[in-house]
Amino acid sequence: MVIKSLRSRLILLLVGLLALVLLAVFVAVYTSTTLSAERQAARQLELGARVFRSVLDARARELATATQILAADFGFRQAVASGDLPTIASALDNQARRIGADQALFFDAAGELRIASAPGRDGQAQIQAVASLSPEALIAVIDQQPYLLVDAVLRAPLPVGEVAMAFRLDQALADELRELTGLDIRFVSSYDGEVQHALSTLPAAQQWPPGSMRDKQTLNLDGERYQLVQLSLLEQAPYAVHVQLISPLRDLLASFAVLKRELLLITLIALLASSLLAVWLAGSLARPVASLADAARRIGRGDYQFRVWLKRRRADELGMLADSIDLMRERIAEREQQLAHNAMHDPLTGLPNLAMVRERLQSAVAGGQSGVLAQCNLDELAQLVNAHGQDLVDNLVCQSAERLNAALPPRSLLAWQPGSGFVLLLEGRALDDAVLLVDQLLGLLADKLQIEQVKLRPQWLAGLVEWPRQGSGVTELLRQASMALADAEPGDHRVAVYQAQRDEAYQRRLQLARDIAYAPRHEELSVVYQPKLALASGQVPQVEALMRWHHQRLGPIRPDEFIVLAEQTGSIALLTQWVLNAVLAQVREWLSRGIELQVAMNISALDLEDASFPEQVEQALERHQVAPRYLSLEVTESALMREPERSLASLQRLRDSGISLAVDDYGTGYSSLAMLKSLPVQYLKIDKSFVLQLTEGSDDAVIVRSTIELAHNMGLAVIAEGIESEDTLHWLQQRGCDYAQGYFVSRPVAAEVLEAWLGEAQARFAYLAEREVGVSPSPV
Ligand code: G
Ligand code: G
Ligand code: MN
């Protein structure tokens, strides 16, 4: 098992260490007490052995004296001398009883045992072994039993016999010795190593097994420990008599047992106490660590709203760590707050940014709130920046932000978004109300300002959109507001409200602007032709080529709509090239079939401003093998006026190469005929707005008539377009107009239709040549 927790590990380590130390102490004390008990026992035994020896010696001396007294007795000696065995036996008996001997023996002069006071089963006593114990005493084995033996020689005066008194090494002796030595005594007589007879003061020792006994040893028997010394009293193989002095260790150990119990108790208490201490210590280390780890986890989760501290203040490393972590938490919180602020605020003004508006709007919409989003920006911002520099404008914005902020109504959010200007979110406000409010606010901003010596009267405009009625996403609403803003104008209309129809038109414009570049590739373009009728002859020498775009999804798109977009998006050159090629291919085809028509093509101001355009036209003519006189180019009056010098160069070059040129839509611009005089053009097309409602006596009639006259004076042929009736046709013919173009003559039609029409037109307009004409047409 792997212990993961620091606390458990510390506890385990400390407690383990303590247990080890205490165990060592316990073992040391325990073994030393046991050793000391054993040593004490050994000393006791040594002492006991000496005491035993001297007691036995004293006893032997005492017995020897008694035996000598018997041997000195005259009567006894006489009885021995006379060989009176019964008397000897009775005297022996008496004497033995008197001195408490267990056996009295009589040996004759030849050393033969004649009388034994306590004979064995065979009526005699068998002396099996004898050994000297001391000068006065012997140890003998008689009838397998050990005896202490003292003898005395009987002299009369020559030795006539010998008496011996034998004292059994018996229980009484053992008890007595035990009294004196304080040790247990065991007498053992053995034959050939086998115990024959044993007695002991220690009941347990009686049954001790036989075996070789060393002189000193420790015995473990029946759970008891004994220490003993063995003294050899007789050693006469196969007989041996030993005495063992035994000291049971139990008593000695018992005196230590209390000590040991106390030691064990003390050890246990120490272990318990130290374990508690270890637990506390480990806790006091591990708990702060755990609580700091917990704090770090909380910080990791982004929770900074608490103080990192330890339950107990501490001045150590952990306390320092806690302080550091708390400092870290504070700093991270600060920084995160700063980041959050930055994410939601604009650095220039310090106002909230779009992200904040988006959030507020989302929650307002989710909460079923309605309101108005306004976008306010400086009129002619680009010019302001150009004139005074970005810094000044930034300064102006900041001052305006302050003014607005001070005047904000409740439940509104003012934001600044670079590029979009001020964005104002007005919650719970109706549109009318919002228009008034925003107008007031713009009024505040319109006051004169002085910034760095520059006096300004900034014009702020606003576009408003209502949510959620008109939209609910910030991006959508901002787009709508900025469309409304585009409609706003300084003055009474500085606050404009978004209108959905405009949005649709805007979307359509956006799509067309995007798709126009692909129209040639997608083969969505085509050319139609509208004839121009020569009023003097009734012939059709020229047609106008008009481009058509059939958008695959939106259907037919009129040039009025897409030409402007193509000009804005830079696709116009592409379209012009396409038309040029289509027209020239058609002219080539007509010429090959004998149809001679001059085709007038419309070009844009941008085409004229492109210096390489004349060359491109020339190359196209060459490519299609069409003579320049079959091509005419129509340029609107306003296009000519845009970059007169550059246009003039191109016009001159085109004219020089033999291409006809016409001023289109004449009358819609501000050019004067005098100005046109300097241009190398041959045709003047009077705009259809003057022709459509042409009636005698009207302003249009005056303009058209004088224009025809003046144009003729300058050598220009006049084309009137927008002729929708025969009257108009005739009126124009009467006034000397050279060419007529209009629905009355023919609508713009496809090439094949035009061919068919040409045949009919011949007959239809032949009469014109016969008519009386007021003013003679000028030659072209
Ligand atoms: O036919 P109609 O509605 O087609 O023409 C509208 C306007 O589009 C006219 O003023 C005409 O000058 C312009 N226009 C038509 N075709 C072209 C073209 O191929 N190039 C340019 N630049 N203008 C064209
Ligand atoms: O300006 P420009 O010459 O490019 O004008 C050609 C435009 O005039 C084309 O859009 C053509 O459809 C339109 N147009 C030609 N004849 C008439 C007419 O009789 N009435 C009206 N309303 N438009 C005409
Ligand atoms: Mn035209």
Automatic annotation (TrEMBL):
<dbReference type="GO" id="GO:0016020">
    <property type="term" value="C:membrane"/>
</dbReference>
<dbReference type="Pfam" id="PF00672">
    <property type="entry name" value="HAMP"/>
</dbReference>
<dbReference type="InterPro" id="IPR035919">
    <property type="entry name" value="EAL_sf"/>
</dbReference>
<dbReference type="Pfam" id="PF00563">
    <property type="entry name" value="EAL"/>
</dbReference>
<dbReference type="Pfam" id="PF00990">
    <property type="entry name" value="GGDEF"/>
</dbReference>
<dbReference type="InterPro" id="IPR043128">
    <property type="entry name" value="Rev_trsase/Diguanyl_cyclase"/>
</dbReference>
<dbReference type="InterPro" id="IPR001633">
    <property type="entry name" value="EAL_dom"/>
</dbReference>
<dbReference type="InterPro" id="IPR050706">
    <property type="entry name" value="Cyclic-di-GMP_PDE-like"/>
</dbReference>
<dbReference type="Pfam" id="PF14827">
    <property type="entry name" value="dCache_3"/>
</dbReference>
<dbReference type="InterPro" id="IPR029787">
    <property type="entry name" value="Nucleotide_cyclase"/>
</dbReference>
<dbReference type="InterPro" id="IPR029150">
    <property type="entry name" value="dCache_3"/>
</dbReference>
<feature type="transmembrane region" description="Helical">
    <location>
        <begin position="263"/>
        <end position="282"/>
    </location>
</feature>
<feature type="domain" description="GGDEF">
    <location>
        <begin position="369"/>
        <end position="500"/>
    </location>
</feature>
<feature type="domain" description="HAMP">
    <location>
        <begin position="283"/>
        <end position="337"/>
    </location>
</feature>
<keyword id="KW-1133">Transmembrane helix</keyword>
<keyword id="KW-0472">Membrane</keyword>
<dbReference type="InterPro" id="IPR000160">
    <property type="entry name" value="GGDEF_dom"/>
</dbReference>
<protein>
    <recommendedName>
        <fullName>GGDEF domain-containing protein</fullName>
    </recommendedName>
</protein>
<feature type="domain" description="EAL">
    <location>
        <begin position="509"/>
        <end position="762"/>
    </location>
</feature>
<dbReference type="GO" id="GO:0071111">
    <property type="term" value="F:cyclic-guanylate-specific phosphodiesterase activity"/>
</dbReference>
<keyword id="KW-0812">Transmembrane</keyword>
<dbReference type="InterPro" id="IPR003660">
    <property type="entry name" value="HAMP_dom"/>
</dbReference>
<dbReference type="GO" id="GO:0007165">
    <property type="term" value="P:signal transduction"/>
</dbReference>
